[in-house]
Amino acid sequence: FLVRDTRRIIQEAAKKHCFVCSKMGATITCWETGCDRSFHLPCASQGECVTQFFGLYRSFCWEHRPQQAVQTRPRQNSTCSICLDTVEDKTSYKTMVCPACQDARFHRHCIQRLALHAGICFHCPCCQNQELFVMEMLTMGIRMSKSPPSWQSDPAVGPSDQRHSRCDASTCLCPGGRKHTEEEGPWKLLLCSSCAAEGTHQHCSSLGNGTNSWECMGC
């Protein structure tokens, strides 16, 4: 039954076009009832889509994605608390705010990189809040690593144990599951060429069989 359902999902996805790049094979569809927008995982960032990498792994298009409800405080200089470059003076897809202190602002790509490197120690870089901050970031589509911080590597753990080994696509189409991998073909597992903290099967992200390099949305 699993193989049959997987084939059906693949066949249905092959008929859907990505609203971002207009190409076929879009495997992700907006969770909002009545919305039929579909997109490829690599196109999500360009289309300002959000995928929640927890619970039901829900995905949303730009129109129906979750919005931060926090009210930003007036600041003389609107700069990212991580890279110190300029950010917008209001919340948006690219500019996010800490829900706890409501003062820390950061680029989406900056907080995503921090989340992957900080792992289980991920918290607001300014007020240090963790519980409220992490839940808000997960809801807004930021992915976290369940590993210890990259700067606290354990010498007792070998390189093979540290290697990420699962597909993080919002919809994994592999009959063998997220941790299944093959040396070649559609179920070859590719790790992000920048952070190596996220992975995807070639087919789950609509990548060609000859693809040997892939970069996750956060990078």
From TrEMBL:
Keyword line: Ligase, Metal-binding, Zinc, Zinc-finger
Record domain PHD-type: where: 1-65
Organism: Scytalopus superciliaris
Name of the protein in question: G2E3 ligase
Pfam families: PHD_G2E3, zf-HC5HC2H
GO cellular component: nucleus
Keyword field contains Acetylation: no
Keyword Cell cycle in annotation: no
Chain ranges of the RING-type domain: 80-128
GO molecular function: ligase activity; zinc ion binding
